Amino acid sequence: MSFSDTLSIRSGAWRLPALRLPPLRAILAGVFLLALALAAIEPRLFTAANPLAIAPREAFQPPSWVHVFGTDQSGRDIFTRVIYGARQSLLLGIGAVALSMSVAIVLGLIGGLGGRFAERAVSWLLDVLFSFPTLILALLFAAHLGSGIGPLIIATGIGTAPGYARMVLGQVIAARNAGYVEAARALGHPPIRTIARQILPNAMRPLIVTITMGIGQAIVWSSALSFLGLGAKPPAAEWGTMLAMGRDFVQRAWWLTFFPGFFIVLTTLATTVFGRYLQRRLEGRGA
């Protein structure tokens, strides 16, 4: 290496490519979501206690070194119940989003590929459903289906489906006349193959970020239904149910509602931050 090369390296003329690390908020959101997933898969990694074990003599214990989040009216450890509640809450969020996206895909494909009449019919149906607030629509289905995890997933999924369906419909309409679809038709590909390999993947790609953020929103809606008594039955370790059980003791034991509510907000915030980070990454690659 010559002296001029050495000088250019020292002066900064030649540099290694910079590593673009995610922002701190995205890293923290990812770490929290990973810990939440681990708690849902194997809660015994974080606590060895039983979330349903009662100890009446230890009722209404405030947060301490023994009970980090305190205890409830039956002496159950709140920290343990919050950890075990991650499984049901994530199941509710992911299940509701999966159901709502399934309904949205069906409606979007029917409206986008079924001709002008089908497009108008689906658009009219979505307009009617949009006239109901999401919580009211979910309440209608929850009141009809009853309480429990399964009915709660169905109610939340159907209640949030119109928003996803409108986005899928718009993406399918934009994709049906794209050049790659015309090329597939010109090559004689069957309609099912064109839909499965061309239209649906390209229509769903922009919605990945929306789905990520929608999990947190679905957890909020399902927790609201549980708070109203339409979710998991007490004493189930589910965040919304824990809020409902502790609302009568807010002045006496604030920790009964604070910690499950805090984790609901934190989960929603983490999914939103991580989803927006994914959106910026995808937009950067697209540019």
From TrEMBL:
What residues form the membrane-spanning segments? Answer: 90-110, 122-143, 149-169, 207-232, 252-275
The primary location reported for this protein is: membrane
Q: Which residues form the ABC transmembrane type-1 domain?
A: 86-275
Give compartment(s): Cell membrane
GO BP? transmembrane transport
Q: Which keywords accompany this UniProt record?
A: Cell membrane, Membrane, Transmembrane, Transmembrane helix, Transport
Spell out the GO cellular component terms annotated for this protein, sorted alphabetically and separated by semicolons.
plasma membrane
Q: How does it sit in the membrane?
A: Multi-pass membrane protein
Family in the record: Belongs to the binding-protein-dependent transport system permease family.
Return the protein name: ABC transporter permease
> From which source organism is this entry?
Kaistia nematophila
